[in-house]
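Hey, I'm writing a tutorial for new members on how sequence and structure tokens pair up, and I'd like a real worked example in the thread rather than a made-up one. If someone can provide the structure for the chain below, I'll link this post from the tutorial.
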Amino acid sequence: MEQKLIYEQHTEHIEWLNKLAFYKDDIKILRDRLSEVALKNTNTDIQANVESFENQFIVQKEQNDILRHDIKQYENVIEKIINENPIASDHKKTDDQVRLRDSIMTYEKIFAEMRKDLIDFLAKWM
């Protein structure tokens, strides 16, 4: 497995956590827009789509929470390594988090697709 400097990984983790915070806020905004459509349109087809998007929001929020937890768990590992030998921490390397990076990229891709579908739906019914 490839190794990366601890400070590079920490910087990447902070970037990921910021992205996840943005997506969490975006879900709240998108949910509000969806609620506006749901209140204005009682058609069963529209309500079915609203429910589908609501379910997607739940899944996205759960995945967001899982990713945040995984990142924070690895940050705990980094902290432990630094505490064990603080002097050499600038030069210390650990295993690169390829799986976690792939998970973040997949989350972003799925979120973007869901967001696009929702925006198209909202444009049609607002």
